[in-house]
Amino acid sequence: MSAMPNRMLAEPLTPTLPLQIAERIGGGIIDETFPPGERLKETGLAQTFGVSRATIRESLRILENRGLVSIVPQRGAQVTKLSRKELEDLFEIRAVLLGLVSRRVALSCTPEVERLLFAGFRALQAARNGATAYARASADLVAVLARSSGNQQLLDYITSFAQRIGRYSRLGLTTPGRRKKSLANWRKLIRAIVARDGDTAEAMHRRLSMQNLAAGLVELDRREREERAARERERRPRA
Fold it and tell me: The whole model's pTM is what?
């Protein structure tokens, strides 16, 4: 059997159309354009993206595998509800993985990686007035770190649940005070990385993740209280 030509190995793979659409719908789930519990109608999505219902169906299956959508026979697809248990489980894993990533990047940091990190931090600063924009800028910085780690397996793990965890990351960045604290911790993290201090970089990124977990739980509790209050109001007899 002949070896695959080097030219073919070097050519980047183009995402399929269903995968591209899954990324866009997933982005809408993260920023809550499609809020938790909302039905995702194949016909409407097909019209929006100008594709067939079969393509949308495949995109929704991708999102189901990512834990963002649940598909029930005869009832269709809907955005999964936010879960306290899922939030805690995902961030426990995230804290360990990102701590390791930041340690590795600190121990092998190059001038080019420094440039990318400082550029990402400036984008984070510019986005600090909005939860959605800030969460996206934060995710971009995480992606820079993961790609710079030199560990393909780490990159694959982090990428595999990026969208699933993205909605919870945004949840923990709802308030201006939270974003201000996050920004200060990112500054300390990047300083540790460019100083080649692996221990501090790992500890800072773990702390960043766990603080976002705590803030996400607070916001999730607030939403649940509001939902319970709304249900109580609906059950009260009208005068």
Answer: 0.82
Among 52, 47, 83, smallest CA distance to 68 is for 83
Q: Which amino acid is at 152?
A: Q
User: Under a CB-based contact definition with an 8 Å cutoff, are residues 214 and 236 in contact?
Assistant: no
Q: Divide the 239 residues of the chain into consecutive groups of 10 and give the mean pLDDT of each group.
A: 40 72 93 93 94 95 94 90 93 95 97 97 96 94 95 91 89 93 96 97 96 94 89 77
Q: In sequence order, what are the beta bridge partners of 77?
A: 40, 71
Going by CATH, does the domain composed of 7-79 fall within 1.10.10.10? yes
CB of 151 within 8 A of CB of 190? Answer: no
Q: Write the CATH number of the domain with boundaries 84-226.
A: 1.20.120.530
Distance CA 197, CA 205 (A): 12
> How far apart are the C-alpha atoms of 90 and 166, rounded to whole Å?
10
Token output for 128: 């600090």
